[in-house]
Design goal:
CATH topology: Cyclin A, domain 1
Number of strands: 4
CATH superfamily: Glucose-regulated metallo-peptidase M90, N-terminal domain
Order of helices and strands: HHHEHEEE
Structural class: alpha+beta
Largest sheet: 2 strands, parallel
CATH architecture: Orthogonal Bundle
Shape: globular
Number of helices: 4
Radius of gyration: 14 Å
Strand content: 5-15%
Helix content: 40-55%
Number of domains: 1
Distance between the termini: 27 Å
Length: about 100
C-alpha cells in the first residue's frame, strides 16, 4: 500500500475524514482491489501507473465502503483508456462502461 497511499490521501477526501481504524480498512481494500485485478492500458495509453490504479481502486472502495467484504470479485480486468473510446459493442463513444 505504501506506493498507493499518497494518491489515496491526495484524491480521496472521504478517506482523510475516516477514523484510524476505518482508514486501515480502506487501505487494505484498496490494496486487495489492486492485487486482485489485472489493469490493462488501451487506446494509446502506454502504461498504467500506480496513480491510475489508486484512483480506480479508491473509487471502488469508496463506493462499497459501507458493505462488508465487497471486493468486486466479478470483475477481473480493468481497461484504462486515455480518452473517450469507441465501443464495438454499443457502436458509440464512451467515457466508461462495465461488462461482465
Amino acid at each position: 500500500m505504501p506506493q498507493y497511499l499518497p494518491f489515496v490521501r491526495k484524491y480521496f477526501n472521504f478517506y482523510t475524514q475516516l477514523n484510524l481504524k476505518d482508514k486501515e480498512i480502506f487501505e487494505k481494500r484498496v490494496q486487495l482491489f489492486i492485487d486482485n485485478k489485472k489493469f490493462i492500458s488501451r487506446g494509446g495509453l502506454t502504461k498504467v501507473t500506480a496513480e491510475m490504479k489508486a484512483l480506480v481502486a479508491g473509487t471502488a472502495v469508496q463506493i462499497s465502503f459501507g458493505s462488508k467484504n465487497l471486493l468486486f470479485n466479478n470483475f477481473e480486468t480493468v481497461l484504462l483508456y486515455p480518452n473517450n473510446y469507441y465501443s464495438s459493442i454499443s457502436k458509440q463513444y464512451h467515457k466508461g462502461e462495465v461488462n461482465l
